[in-house]
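so my prof wants the structure for this chain in the tokens format not the other one, which i didnt know existed until like an hour ago. anyway here's the sequence
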Amino acid sequence: MKTELELKNIVQLKYAEIANQSKDENASSCCGAGGCSTKVYNIMTDDYTKVEGYNADADLGLGCGLPTEFAQIKEGDIVIDLGSGAGNDCFVARQAVGETGKVIGIDFTDAMIMKARENAMKLQFSNVEFIKADIDDMPLKDNYADVVVSNCVLNLVPNKNKVLAEIYRVLKQGGHFSISDVVLVGNLPEEIRGAAEMYAGCVSGAIQKSDYLSIIEKSGFKNISIQKEKVITLPEDILSKYLNEEQITVYQNSNIGIYSITVYAEKF
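here's what i got, hopefully its the right format
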């Protein structure tokens, strides 16, 4: 079994590669993981193009939801985006917080931070900042942010308890988060879970939905709710890379499911 550091290195290397791919290349793969299926983009991501604040240069096609739509961001808020990539959700959040608020994107991949800062410079935003750091060890003070958002990132982090504890720490009393992520219902075949490409591509780093919600509750959050949920159906051309025909049939006829959920919770 790989250590937390080894898993982080896998994700970091993969997303450094993804940062230098076009959106079209990422769109034809498993969250940018590498040539899985032309169908994956349509089933994994939500359409940002009509959202206020959307910036095409910052959209790498890597999300599995639209957390900023549900995050109840207000003008003047301080917002943190975990795993900010090229800045897509940060710029949408910036539209909501206006000139008087602030948005901080945190990512641990140099290439992503560089791309996000370039995009912010083009947009001439003075209140959007990108910090290179691990999201399970944020260089921010306690009780700092009004809102935390994240889009298909926590599933990639080995120690989810530590990330949720950090989110709780940096949120103000009365603050909240809205996070889109991939979760499982039932046991995904090991052939899929074990593939590093799928790990970096959102699926095999995911945990059971019940466990995911339990971690949030045990971290101290209240008023936990699922704001949006959709099933992710893996096409056969993906499954055939990891399973034989008999295994595919068993998998498709089982109650096992991969879901994208957007979860909301508050800190009191």
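also thought this was worth mentioning. Strands lie at 78-82, 102-107, 128-132, 145-151, 171-185, 222-232, 257-266.
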